[in-house]
């Protein structure tokens, strides 16, 4: 793959590439812990399960950030430039048989470049969805009847919202949704006013107001940004899907607790199930595609745990344990594949070897201390290759008495 050379010579390219590769097993480990916690907490409240999944996503991002920092710290540059120059420039060593790590290291720039392209595509898609939502709340809006303004204000008070929230009637929106964080707007499609009765619309508005009370819009934006950065990672996307599911369940619970009419809410969900939505950045009642599971859950007569203290404590314990494992087990680069840069002019090869040993935490020695001077300018070479390069040069330039 043709990749800009000056781009791939940066330390952060190597650090980022290895961070992305490590994220696969690191996030898999956190996903397993999340799955275990969610299984053990099947009868827990939707909010506690939501917090467990949300914590998993944020810890996954934190793990990768720490791994990137470790690689950045591990990157080293050796600069030795006396006033004299030398024409002795040894050839770069290319082993005949490459290990898997060698192959990956050789293509780490291309891997990072492909990731950058993927992030650009996913980021553009996210921005277009965001722009669509912003246009949706400003255009094709009709005046909200005073009756529904009063009802909406009353429902907001019941949910526990004291700030002013605006209700707008949209002529083109497919489903009810919340758009915005600082000045949230609830969009209610005009077709719902024509097709549903007042009680159904009220429970829909309760669900949307629950999103605002829980500040789901802001958290959803952060979640989407993390998913964009790790678009290739199925384990993080699975954890994120659990957030989406439990977020809708939690809002369902709030709407049902206030309305005290689960049959009405389930029937409303059923009628909304056939409606499609393009408001991907918005918080809407359709949200989770597994709508049947939500309806079944509403009528689950088994006792649900409403407190989150115990389950959250267990979640924190296990997820932080998985975080420590994800960071500690093979996350940092090993000495052999640690990357350094060499900028050396007319310097004894044994002095260069000393500096390489310091940077690579190795203890390699040359046959003798007088094997000539070297001039080197190498970017992003592994410790193993640098050591081999210096040893080969020493072997080809034996000491001259």
- The helix-and-strand class reads alpha/beta
First-residue to last-residue Cα separation: 49 Å
* General form: elongated
Number of discrete helical segments? 15
Major β-sheet profile: 5 strands, mixed
What is the radius of gyration computed over CA atoms, rounded to a whole number of angstroms?
Answer: 29 Å
Strand order of the largest sheet: 2-3-5-4-6
Spans with pLDDT under 50 lasting ≥5 residues? 1-9, 83-98
Q: Helix-strand pattern, N to C?
A: HHHEHHEHEEEHHHHHEHHEHEH
Proportion in helices = 55-70%
The count of DSSP E runs of length 2 or more, i.e. the number of strands, is 8
Mean pLDDT rating: 79
Percentage of residues in DSSP E strands: 5-15%
Short descriptors:
five-stranded mixed β-sheet, alpha/beta, single chain, elongated
């Amino acid at each position: 793959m043709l990749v800009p050379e000056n781009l791939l010579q940066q330390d952060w390219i190597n650090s980022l590439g290895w961070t992305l590769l490590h994220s696969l097993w690191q996030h898999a480990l956190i996903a397993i812990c999340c799955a275990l916690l969610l299984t053990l907490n099947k009868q827990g409240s939707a909010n506690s399960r939501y917090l467990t999944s949300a914590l998993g996503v944020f810890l996954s991002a934190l793990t990768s950030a720490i791994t990137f920092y470790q690689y950045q710290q591990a990157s080293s540059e050796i600069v030795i430039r006396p006033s004299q120059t030398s024409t002795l420039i040894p050839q770069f060593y290319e082993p005949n048989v490459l290990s898997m790590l060698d192959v990956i290291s050789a293509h780490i720039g291309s891997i990072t470049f492909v990731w950058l392209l993927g992030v650009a595509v996913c980021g553009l898609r996210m921005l277009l969805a965001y722009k669509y939502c912003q246009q949706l709340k400003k255009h094709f809006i009709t005046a909200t009847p005073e009756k529904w303004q009063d009802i909406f204000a009353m429902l907001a008070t019941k949910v526990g919202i004291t700030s002013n929230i605006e209700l707008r009637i949209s002529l083109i929106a497919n489903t009810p949704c919340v758009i915005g964080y600082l000045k949230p707007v609830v969009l209610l499609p005009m077709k719902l006013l024509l097709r549903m009765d007042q009680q159904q619309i009220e429970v829909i508005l309760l669900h949307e107001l629950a999103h605002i009370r829980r500040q789901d819009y802001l958290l959803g934006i952060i979640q989407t940004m993390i998913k964009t950065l790790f678009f290739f990672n199925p384990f993080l996307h699975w954890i994120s899907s659990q957030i989406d599911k439990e977020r809708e369940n939690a809002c369902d619970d709030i709407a049902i607790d206030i309305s005290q009419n689960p049959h009405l809410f389930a029937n409303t969900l059923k009628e909304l199930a056939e409606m499609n939505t393009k408001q991907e950045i918005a918080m809407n009642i359709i949200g989770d595609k597994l709508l049947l599971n939500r309806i079944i859950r509403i009528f689950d007569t088994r006792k649900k745990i409403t407190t989150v203290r115990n389950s959250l404590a267990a979640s924190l314990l296990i997820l932080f344990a998985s975080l420590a494992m994800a960071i500690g087990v093979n996350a940092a680069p090993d000495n052999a594949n640690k990357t350094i840069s060499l900028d050396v002019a007319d310097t004894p090869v044994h002095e260069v070897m000393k500096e390489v040993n310091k940077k690579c935490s190795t203890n390699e020695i040359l046959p003798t201390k007088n094997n000539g001077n070297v001039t080197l300018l190498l970017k992003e070479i592994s410790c193993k290759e640098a050591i081999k390069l210096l040893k080969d040069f020493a072997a080809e330039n034996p000491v001259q008495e």
